[in-house]
Design a protein that fits this description.
Shape: globular
Number of helices: 8
Radius of gyration: 14 Å
Oligomer: single chain
Strand order of the largest sheet: 2-1-3-4
Strand content: 5-15%
Number of strands: 4
Structural class: alpha+beta
Helix content: 40-55%
Largest sheet: 4 strands, mixed
């Protein structure tokens, strides 16, 4: 199984997820939004699988600082545009396997997905 962990390196939740994966000996690739960006096709696939509401981090500083007009009447396309413009608005981490996607870090959910598969 190929695992890719998407996010930004200085996020505390990202750090916890990476430490957990490393501690379990689970190989993964890290995709840094700040350096590598994210493309529309990837976000669109995630939105189809999870819904834009699960991906858009509305509690983060970047989103909260947006003008009210940018936050109003959101749709999937508008949310994708926001996340493309500011990848830090994507909820972190996003862990992608060959046939599933997990958003956020919960050790028990990671264990259920990954430890039972090994």
């Amino acid at each position: 199984m190929t695992l890719t962990l998407y996010g930004i390196p200085n996020c505390d939740t990202m750090k916890k997820a990476r430490v957990w994966l490393d501690g379990q000996g689970i190989a993964h690739r890290f995709h840094d939004y700040k350096k590598a960006g994210i493309d529309r096709a990837t976000l669109e696939r995630w939105v189809v699988a999870l819904g834009w509401e699960a991906l858009l981090n509305r509690s983060g500083t970047t989103f909260r600082k947006l003008p009210d007009a940018d936050k109003a009447d959101l749709t999937a396309d508008r949310a994708i545009d926001l996340m493309l413009a500011q990848p830090s608005m994507i909820r972190r981490p996003v862990l992608v396997a060959d046939d599933w996607i997990e958003v956020g870090f919960k050790p028990d959910r990671y264990a259920g997905r990954l430890l039972s598969a090994n």
